[in-house]
Amino acid sequence: MTMALVQNNTLDLIGNTPLVLLQGPSEAAGCEVWGKCEFANPGASVKDRAALWIIRDAEARGELKPGGTVVEGTAGNTGIGIALVANARGYKTVIVMPDNQSKEKMDTLRALGAELVLVPPTKFADPAHFVHTSRRLAEETEGAVWANQFDNVANRKAHIESTAPEIWQQLEGRIDGFTCAAGTGGTIAGVGLGLKAFDENIRIALTDPHGAALYSYYATGELKAEGTSVAEGIGQGRITANLEGAPIDTQFRISDEAGLEWVARLLREEGLCLGLSSGINVAGAVELGKQLVAEGRKDVRVATILCDTGFRYLSTLYNADWLRAKNLPVFPWLG
Questions:
Q1: What positions does the domain Tryptophan synthase beta chain-like PALP occupy (predicted)?
Q2: Which residues form the catalytic set?
């Protein structure tokens, strides 16, 4: 029996998440598909890593001082991570979030003691966008720093220094491909850069939801969005600082329906309750695995990110009325 790790600091609980072999996706891909269980972080998402590195970076640069405030614009998970890290370090938190995100995320942020500012969803070019609103609030708040997760490369550094080495070590250096979606771009760019530092032949694939522009950018060089997605926290219409120089070798576009199929299967068949971003990532990993197998590679292994827990979406993905309103298939057990 493997004993649980013992940590002397609660922030050391961030990272070192398990990697699990996914049976259904592996069978569908014809190779091993592994999921990095980021829902095992204290804030139940991959964004805890970015939050920790961003706050430590601000402290190291002398911008964040005792009693200060961290302000951020987020779809929710980064805000939750920031609130937890800030609490542990003695800072206040102000989170700006679009008002169309899940109620569970809003309730969680309030429960953690963050000041929550809700704004209508709008295009990034609009000054009222949640990112720009958070920047202005940081500028107007004494002793505050703006986390700026989209363009603060401490975000991707978290994945270069932690996520990528963990995956490499957990798979004992035998990995052929990695894929995930992009929100800020920190995870795909950071893990990609980190893994290619170990082996430049590892194929890094972007898995993009409909409604985002990155699939088109990496396929044709043009930022062009097609369709829509209800997935929270992923999908991007610009090249953020975190995405600059990202080693993307190939790309897949995945529908909400395809992502939801894997959300349903992983819950019913393997006991994993996940959000839609994880389902989209798994669908992309299956496609990447198929691609590598079709090229004649043997004993293929691909990995992806299981971003967060499905318990964060009980009022949306796991609500039959909400799914019907979005013209999405309802999980059979929800009736």
A1: 12-308
A2: 47
